[in-house]
Specification:
The chain is of the alpha/beta class. It has 15 helices and 14 strands. The two termini are 20 Å apart. Keywords: Transferase.
Length: 376
């Protein structure tokens, strides 16, 4: 178990006021906190909605909430009430960064929007996580991960070729928007180091969803053909797909001709790499249906787990297809510090970005109370 540690993060000394809810904003705040920022999460009187997004629950609080609100202290304010807005302004005066995801116009209606406060707090970096931005044809509309997956084309290219559009099985748009918010905050802090002034940063779900469309957007820009679903297979290269073996399926990720030749040698078909239909990456992609039949016929003689080890040793990217439980229990997951255990039975995913001199630290379990910024 990891005990609360000293603050070793690159953002030590940066104070973040996180008044966001649900996922994108809180995820941003947690990342900033993991890397040393002092994060105070201000929730409405009823708490963040995700406290109830269960089961499972731990001590009455949903695991969903606990997975996004580590390294923060929490308090509650009703920003619709004038007295609590005064308390909020006192917190803003102490903050370097504000993260919020209120519907566009809400904070402005209360008189505490960016335009109203930017001159009063000129060094403040104000980060808004929104659905569609504040203007344009969809401006100010609320955005939700699944709906944005549908609108930005993600669902249209996810799923089996013969099936219908399918939502990605995790909130990928919300999460990448949180990551983009972190990037925006760090860019703005770097600029403030030079200019002395903060600025408004916006990360919109819609923009983030579109940004994920590689290589489908690049393909469409090049040939004008509407991208189609390809199941587990890559749209541009092959074999980059889940393939059946004599036991469980494996995922093969062959990215070049050298890897394909090494793969063919490993499965006892060295001549296949010289077949004109498969010798080059482009021809393998065009002839993928026939190639898959030949490969799976040969793979039926192999144990999938053992074959993965042999392929990786030969420099061929391959992997077993693991469940979430097996992935979290994998020895390499522990080696990389990707499961964090803290006091009170807290377990969560670790920080994926590793820095040699200023590593992430885990100082506050979710639901740590506090009413101001404190030095870690």
């Amino acid at each position: 178990m990891t005990s609360p540690t000293a603050n070793t993060g690159a953002l030590a000394g940066i104070r973040v006021l996180d008044i966001s809810r649900i996922l994108g904003g809180p995820f941003c705040g947690q990342i900033l906190g993991d890397h040393g920022a002092d994060v105070l999460k201000v929730e409405p009187p009823q708490g963040d909605d995700t406290r109830t997004w269960g089961p499972p629950f731990i001590d009455g609080v949903a695991s969903y909430y606990r997975g996004l609100n580590r390294n923060k202290r929490t308090m509650r304010l009703d920003l619709a009430a004038e007295a609590d807005r005064d308390a909020f302004l006192a917190l803003v005066a102490e903050a370097d960064v504000l993260v919020e995801n209120f519907k566009a116009g809400t904070m402005e209606r209360w008189g505490i929007g960016y335009e109203a406060l930017s001159e009063r707090f000129p060094r403040l970096v104000w980060c808004r996580v929104s659905g569609f931005g504040s203007d344009g044809p969809l401006g100010a509309l609320p955005g939700y991960d699944a709906a944005v997956q549908a609108m930005t084309g993600i669902m249209s290219i996810n799923g089996e070729a013969e099936g219908g559009p399918l939502r990605v099985g995790l909130p990928v748009v919300d999460m990448v928007t949180g990551l983009n918010a972190v990037i925006g905050v760090l860019l703005a802090l770097q600029d403030r180091h030079r200019s002395g002034r903060g600025q408004f940063v916006e990360a919109a779900l819609y923009d983030s969803g579109l940004s994920l469309l590689h290589p489908h957007a690049a393909n469409w820009f090049a040939n004008g053909r509407t991208p189609q679903r390809t199941g587990n297979a890559h749209p541009n290269i092959y074999p980059y797909d889940a393939l059946r073996t004599g036991t469980e399926p494996i995922f093969l990720a062959v990215g070049n001709d050298r890897q394909f030749a090494a793969f063919c040698r490993c499965i006892g078909l060295p001549d296949l790499a010289q077949d004109e239909r498969y010798r080059e990456a482009g021809s393998r992609s065009v002839n993928r249906a026939a190639l898959k039949i030949e490969l799976e016929a040969a793979l039926a003689a192999f144990d999938g787990v053992k074959l993965v080890d042999e392929l990786m040793a030969a420099g061929v990217p391959a992997a077993p297809v693991l469940g979430v439980d097996a992935a979290l229990l994998h020895p390499h997951t522990a080696h990389r510090g990707m499961v964090v255990e803290m006091e009170g039975g807290y377990r969560g995913l670790g920080a994926p970005v590793k820095l040699s001199r200023t590593p992430a630290s885990y100082r506050h379990v979710p639901l740590t109370e506090g009413d101001s910024f404190l030095a870690d």
